[in-house]
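In this notation, each integer encodes one residue's backbone shape. One such record reads:

___
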Amino acid sequence: MSMDASLPDDLAACQSELVTTRSELVHVEHVLAETASMCEQQREELDRLKVELELLQRFRFGRRSERFVESPGQGRLFNESDAEATTDSPRLDESQQEEISYRRRRRGHGWNKLPDHLPRQEVLVDLPESERQCPSCGESMQRIGEDRSERVDVIPARVLVKVIVRPKYACRHQHGIRQAETPPSPVPGGRFDFGFMAQVVTSKTADHLPLYRQQDILARSGLTLSRATLCEIMANAATLLEPLAAIIRRRLLATDLLGADDTPVRLLDRSHPEGVRLARFWLVRGFDEAPYNAFHFHESRGRDGPREFLREFRGVVKVDAYGVNDGVYLSSDGRIIASCCMAHARRKFDEAKSSHPRLAAEALALFQQLYDIEDRGREFTNNDRYALRQLESVPLLNRLRGWLDEQGGHALPKLKLGDAIRYARNQWMPLVNYVEDGRRPIDNNATERDLRAMTLGRKAWLFIGSPEAGPRAAVLYTVVASAARHDLDIWAYLRDVLERLATGGVELAVLLPDAWAKSHPEMVRVFRGHERESRAAAERVRRNHRRLVAQAKAASPDHG
């Protein structure tokens, strides 16, 4: 047996070699441990970036719906049995089906009959004289009837000049001259009437047409105006509508339940290095006691904005969990209570589906059951809805809290699932206090939906021109958004309200959108209500069917 000549042959040298080798092994183990730790961190970072990339692709290219559909093998969490369910769907009997009592329009044809109130213009399409001879006998053909068909056409808006004639009357004995007073004008000393002002405001705030586009539209009708003139019309409209906006704000603040949300807007500022900075519009939405929307403009997202608006309010505000809300509500000495939006908490678990599909599905199944309870109680009275929540929602929320505590111990905080769990646990009490009052909604979706009208317009008009223009825009959006909630013809409403406010002596309460709608039922867009009813009815049928499928799965003998 040969020996390696490089190995020492005495004991002391061997011991020294072993000590050196051991220290090198310790160093190698340390390096391997650091490498493994670095690889684990990079893996977590890679998972996080993959989720962000997927969310970005979904936001940019995919559907944004958060509808949760259980997978065929996913059972209901906390059911007594949780095995694979049957795939046979039950048929709905007649008692379980909901009749959708609305008449669908025929696709591609609009109305079955065009409205009678639209003006008609007859266009004669006749054969020329040379073709009215019979080709066989040569005699003139006799007219025996006609066919009529209707088409909808559009002529650009007609701008007219209203010439105001005020006759003068004089006494022949020279006792004086009498003349009717000049009708009030929306712009003092201006040349524009209330219909024109209503059109400019409606186009900007309801139809999302910036003023430079309105210039082109007016030019098609033969009227060329500067943008400064249109800005002056908007400013005067805000001045006239300010008393109405003020009573809307007072009505909202007199209640004890509101919804609130905000959206950024770019504000031109010459003193800023970039010439523009971010400001904020806050929307406060009332419920049944005050069915109005009020906008408030603030030049930053600081807590001074909502605190200023809500300084006289006492009650519950439905909000998201943005930090400024804590500053507003926690500093109110209990005068204001925050109730957080459950949809925000649910959305975070929806974003975690790609990285943790099984755990995210478990959480989303619980949220789905909570929303099913709300769906069944939608038409209940407030007291009955409160009783339903106490009976069914409270135990389900307790189970959800237990699940969050269990998973929170080992969910990585930097990944989407860990972030969703932390968000829900940190905001738990504001999230679940909706069960304490049957009037409180489970989420703030209605407020976010109403705020979307401004965000759509913001993509077109891009910025607020000055700090003074922000409050004026808030007044206009307050009145227009409140009228839109009641499906009013915005132009007709503004036309009437502006003139009555300029004339003076009118009670503001009768100009509120809900009161005005009752006195002008012909100006209510009834079809909007029908559209909402049809969508809601179809959604209820879908949800009822899904609940029956889930019940059939749980009761199936093959289940568990």
Summary: The first strand starts at residue 168 and ends at 170. The two ends are 68 Å apart (CA to CA).
